[in-house]
Amino acid sequence: MLGLGLDTPGTWLLPRPFSIGWRSERGLIGILLRVFGRGTRALSALTPGETALVLGPLGTEFEAAEGRTTECVAGGVGLAPFVFLAAEEIAAGRPVRLVYGERDAEAVFDTDLLRELTDIDAEVFTEDGSRGTRGRVTAGLDPAADSVLCACGPTPMLAALARFAVEHDRDLQVSVEEHMGCGIGTCQGCVVRSSAGRWVKACVEGPVFRATDLDWGAP
Amino acid sequence: MTGDRATSPVMSQRLFGADIHSPVFLASGTCGYGQEYADLIPLDDIGGIFTKAVSVEPRAGNPPHRVAETPGGMINAIGLENVGLDRFIQDKLSWLREHLTRAHVFVNVVGRTRDDYAAVVAGLDPHDGFLGYEINVSCPNVKGGTLFGTDETALADLVARLRKETDRPLIIKLTPNVSDVGVFARICEEEGADGLSAINTFPGMLVDTRSRRPVIGNRSGGVSGPAILPMGVYATWRARQVTEIPIIGIGGIRDGDDAVQYILAGAALVQVGTASFVDPDAAVTTHAGIEAYLRAHGVATLAELVGTLDDGL
Fold first, then answer.
1. B74-110 burial, b if ≥16 CB within 10 A, otherwise e?
2. Quick one: how far is CA A38 from the chain centroid?
3. What are the start-end ranges of the E strands in chain B?
4. Quick one: which of A207, B73, B169, B219 has the fewest CB in 10 Å?
5. N- to C-terminal Cα distance for chain A?
């Protein structure tokens, strides 16, 4: 959770959940955020030397498997966790593929910076074809590949991938997003529906779930 | 313990038959059953906690979104999700009993009927590990359809019934959703309540203008946070005018100054809620802020500050 704390006069901001974007050898961490509303605007306005309040790391993480390629499937701001995951996996000498979808070219993250951070090239898909391949990320996946599928993005994208995974008998881990209050399981605000019909907390039981553990509703 | 004890202000108060060493508690619904916060803040350094609500039966809670940010606060409709009485006793109360030494526990109680509330209180009463009850009366009364806390007769009957079930401290958490909170405060006192929490969340709604739907899955929810601080201070002051039992001030407290406003208005204790989400240390810094206020103003004991508002009346 990343916020501004209580000490900034005139500011009231509930902390927001973010992935760790990258880490440096000096022990710094980076957070990748897109300015979307007032919260991300306030956080992005921080200048060097100002203080942010970080609570973390929290929750579950993607799990790669030895000897298998990790296929990261990112939609929009769902790119954030994969910058870190891809960099860590590549550094450990394990193969990674990054399939990254956006609405249009304008929304696509700086791919040069992405390469610098992860050491691989993202395969870009846009819905309107203005950048990379035209179409959705699901078009970039080989149903028969023996890889670990990890996805983060809008719920309709995750739901489509969940159906793809069931259809082709593939392992899929998804990182879900829900409004969060505390980040540590106390407020019970950030629930998603499990396949067992239970509300599960995205902050501590997630945010990364096996896709088969969640209820994706009717297609 | 640091500093000169002789000149350190006395933060401890004798209330509800107990020595309460700090006036600052964590508010119900913002600290779970204590366990989740134990790694983050020293719970024994504050007065204690008001637990997440406990009902007779486990409750699944509402569909998402359950929380959202509002100007100066947040709105929530969790739906009183909780593990139910039996598991609370088995898993949660036992943890609290084993892990807290100085911090006091009040169990927040909800129900759909008077019998529901009474069953929770009767079920908990023989167990150790908590000091008393905080009764959430912002629940719909199955019989009448109104909230217990907004219906004078339903509230009086409920408090009278619970008074028969327990000798432990019985605190009623007032709802602000009434024309005069003083009337309801009086009813609680007359029916034998030992204290009042002022105040619960305000009913509210947020709309997603793109989808034209309510943001909150339950459509409406309770608004908390700094935006409601003046309403909470007012409710505390109003209840203080018409009752003599201890008041626990709650609503929008972020720091010592916010807490002192409640204390001057008549609260002996305070609860920090939503602010803990923004900074888990909020309750600890609030305690330090109250102590600093006493020191700066040459007040020897917290107890002598309570209710000393110069309101010209």
1. bbbbbbbbbbebeebbeebbeebeeebeebbbbbbbb
2. 20
3. 13-15, 18-20, 24-26, 48-50, 67-70, 73-76, 104-109, 132-136, 170-173, 195-198, 202-204, 207-208, 213-214, 221-224, 247-250, 267-272
4. B219
5. 32
In this structure, are residues A102 and A108 in contact, taking their beta carbons and an 8 Å threshold? Answer: yes
Distance CA B159, CA B184 (A): 11
Q: How many residues does chain A have?
A: 219
Q: Does A12 touch chain B (CB under 8 A)?
A: yes
Cα separation, B106 vs B116, whole angstroms = 18
Test B78 with A184 for CB contact under 8 angstroms: no
Domain residue spans of chain B: 13-305
In this complex, is the C-beta atom of B81 within 8 Å of any C-beta atom belonging to chain A? yes
Superfamily of domain B13-305: Aldolase class I (3.20.20.70)
Q: What's the gap in Å between the CA of A136 and the closest CA on chain B?
A: 23
**Interface membership of A58 toward B (CB under 8 Å):** no
How buried is A82 (Cβ within 10 angstroms: 0-12 exposed, 13-18 middle, 19+ buried)?
A: buried
Does the model's ipTM exceed the 0.90 cut?
yes
Q: Which of A4-18, B7-21, B72-86, B105-119 has the lowest mean pLDDT?
A: A4-18
- The radius of gyration computed from the CA coordinates of chain B, to the nearest angstrom, equals 19
* pLDDT tens digits for range B130-158: 999 999 998 776 676 678 999 999 999 99
Which candidate in A2, A12, A193 is best for mutational testing of the B interface (most B CBs within 10 A)?
A12
Q: What is the pTM of this model?
A: 0.94
Map out the domains of chain A with their CATH numbers: 2-55 (no CATH), 70-213 (3.40.50.80)
Q: Write the residue in A12, A193, A198 that is nearest to B72 by C-beta.
A: A12
B29: region left, alpha or beta (phi > 0 left; psi from -120 to 50 alpha): left
Distance CA(B107)–CA(B44), nearest Å, equals: 17
pLDDT digits (tens, 9 = 90+) for B190-239: 999 999 999 999 999 999 999 999 999 999 999 999 999 999 999 999 99
Residue A116, H or E segment: helix A111-118
Q: Which of A216, A218, A102, A211 is nearest to A149 (CA)?
A: A211
3-state secondary structure of A124: strand
Just list the catalytic residues of B. Answer: 139
